[in-house]
Amino acid sequence: MSGETFPGGEHDRDWLAAEYALGLLEGESLAEAQRRLSDDPDFRREVGGWTGRLAPLLDEVEAAAPPQDLWRRIEPRLAGAGGSGTAPAAAANDNLAPLQRKLALWRGYGAAATALAASLAFFMVVRPGAAPVPSAPTPVSPIPAAGPAPLVAMMESKDSPVRLVATYEPATRSLVVMPAAGLTRAAGHSHQLWLIPDGGAPRPLGIVTPGAPLRLALSGGLAPDSTLAVSVEPTGGSPTGLPTGPVIAAGKLVRT
Amino acid sequence: MPPAEQALAPLSTGFRCLPGWCMGLNMDLPAGALGESGERLRLSEALASVAAGDKSAMKELYARTSPKLFGICLRVLGSEAEAEEALQETYVAAWRKAAAFDSGRASPITWLAIIARNKAIDRLRLRRPTAPDGLDSAAAIPDDSPSAADTLEQADEARRLSLCLDSLDAVQSRAIRGAFLGGASYPDLAASEGVPLGTMKSWIRRGLSRLKKCLES
Asked: ipTM value of the model?
């Protein structure tokens, strides 16, 4: 083993996160890791990375049935909604507040999308053709000053954290789909966007990627009440032209 | 009507989808109908209900996952009595932290398994006189671990990790497994291999470097 290169770093501190995640530390170095865990986000991420890398090892462990009455010992320790909150060792379920925050945040996306649609509409009205001169005349612009209102779809599902916001500008037939939350890159999979006309069959529109807007120019128009949906598909999209994987978010296009 | 469209089943959301396609929206499927990815979906759902304070969902989560998690606690602690304690702490922590679970980052069973493993290691460290507080289970949950899109992919990950561990020197992979699954510390490992502490440290660090490279290749 000697003579091998050592690409991970020579210093103890370079290894603290990995060693903490592995559970190797004791005493002073364990205390130091715990200090950094509470006030160093990069360190926390690194610990998370190593834990995630090694977590598949837990798959190897054989299951074993716990004693029959164990649930009865756990239940009194769970306080909160409908529970016996008076038990001395009861743990408050401190999830409700964050959940409400998430909900508020999600409502915020709605407001943001409406604002986005409004600003897009504004931009289109005042944009002086292709010339970047603010005082350029506008009468020849092909975009009507008061075109049809943009459509917006909030795409979500109660069973996934994925949220996307879609805005469709009828005047230019342009659709912009922005992942807002929960969409992550996954090896071997693509997230495919579908248009489902009211009462019609799904039509593939494109692949959405985390953190980047998908911009599409549609040849046909989009009707209100059409649904947009995102499903998990093999890399590159469904091989059949119809959705084959689970839908992780869907929403109807509505007028703003 | 084209045959593909005849196969579409109407959904309450106002659009149609192929049978088995709308798993994310159409929830009342019979148990087992969805196989492993269905189990993952069920657990995610149960965790979402737990996050909203639903104790019956917590009971379901316990029924579906406790044998796996008890196995992990037993593996780390080696004592039934201590494993029972660690298992209780695991579910109390899961109840508290359910809202922090993000199904885009980890599968529900992996999330729970990591809590169980960390709670068990906490208890192991408590046995030792030098131990200050032990691992903080909630903080050690992977923040940016690679997402597993389904259990199939999880099985792939397990296979890949296993292959990469097997590519290391035997003593390195034994030590890494012994630490992560058996709760062994540096001094434990050095003693069991009969080498100085410094030697064990550099063996493990080299092993981890190579492991990381292998997993990223």
From this structure: 0.73
